[in-house]
Amino acid sequence: MKLSEVFKTNKPTLSFEVFPPKTTDAFDSVKEATEGIAALKPDFMSVTYGAGGGTSRYTVSVAENIQNKYNVPTLAHLTCVSSTKQQINQMLDALKANNIENILALRGDIPEGYEKNGSWSFDHASQLVQYIRSKGDFCIGGACYPEGHPESPNQKQDILYLKEKCNAGCDFLTTQMFFDNNILYNFLYKVRDAGITVPVCAGIMPVTNGKQISRICSLSGTLLPGRFKQIVDKFSDNPAAMKQAGIAYATEQIIDLLANGVNHIHVYSMNKPDIAQKIKENLSQIL
Ligand code: FAD
User: Fold this and answer.
1) Which of 15, 62, 124, 163 to mutate to test ligand 1, by most ligand atoms within 8 A of the CB atom?
2) Average pLDDT, whole number, for the chain?
3) Which CATH number fits domain 3-282: 3.40.190.10, 3.20.20.220, 3.40.50.300, 3.40.350.10?
4) How close is the Cα of 81 to the center of ligand 1, in Å?
């Protein structure tokens, strides 16, 4: 099922993101974890893509398994950095052959020491979006950044490029994680003011490992609010307490978003069925 159909009803949605295995050995454990999340019957699940890596084929098999075994619509991520047009065509053919109708079209992070190789076909996600649009009847999503993409000189410019990406054929957007809802509300105001009208899924990361989060935030440029820093300071040495506090914080963020009319919540569930389940339970009377 196309996600554009899911969003059309304008009912609130809860979806989860998973990632494919990095090695063949890990395939079975990842499959089990993603199936545990699919069994919760979210509105859809997304499967990330290892940019330019040899494991990219696992995105298709994990997505196909979730969709066919659990009847949960899937969204396959696809990046274009360091890929040739031929490689992109192969992925599009594989997605079509497996009845995967939804693609999150991404540029991917530029590898360190990057020098543009003549065989790479796309510099920006908007070019990939346009190309996918020309290649078949897919529902296409794009990424957006409430705090600005780390490479952007300013948010205004970032939103202008986002508009270009939407004009190229995005049906919806999913945000980078954020920990302060006011940042999202402010971003949404600017995005709508710029004439971007597609549905926006709010990306929520339940932080259950305090040690990782500072590194992730410094890489992605995401702000850690003082209130959240206190939680990490206090509980990061106690994994069970950190997990409980991280799930509670994410739940509170989601409830506030829903109360303020942000209807589409995408949880970065990191292949953790127990965390996905807890969040779903916490919202059982709300969603
Ligand atoms: P773009 O939309 O191309 O934007 C990248 C930068 O280029 C921005 O600064 C933008 O302002 C600028 N820009 C855009 N168009 C132009 C133009 N015409 N001229 C000049 N500058 C321009 N990475 C993975 O490897 N695998 C994944 O599965 C994955 N999933 C993700 C899911 C989400 C929801 C998000 C938010 C990110 C994900 N990423 C993933 C990370 C993503 O690949 C990186 O953030 C990457 O650096 C940018 O990708 P993009 O698609 O946003 O790029």
Assistant:
1) 124
2) 94
3) 3.20.20.220
4) 10
Span from the CA of 128 to the centroid of ligand 1 (angstroms): 11
Domain spans, the chain? 3-282
Cβ distance 53 to 82 under 8 Å?
no
Give the closest residue (by CA) to ligand 1 atom 36: 176
Contact between 37 and 63 (Cβ < 8 Å): no
According to the model, what pLDDT value does residue 75 have? 98
pTM: 0.97
Nearest CA to ligand 1 atom 26: 49
The partner residues of 140 in beta bridges, in order of sequence, read 103
Instruction: Give the count of beta carbons closer than 10 Å to the beta carbon of residue 159.
Output: 21
Answer for the pair 1, 67: CB distance below 8 angstroms, yes or no: no
pLDDT of residue 216: 82
pLDDT tier for residue 53 given thresholds of 50, 70 and 90: low
Active-site residue, selected from the candidate residues 17, 64, 101, 147 = 17
Judge whether residue 47 has pLDDT over 90.
yes
| Ligand 1 proximity of 120 Cβ (cutoff 6 Å) | no
With a CB cutoff of 8 Å and minimum separation 6, the contacts of 18 are 30, 33, 34, 37, 45, 46, 47, 48, 62, 66, 269, 270, 271
- Provide the pLDDT for residue 83: 87
pLDDT number for residue 269: 95
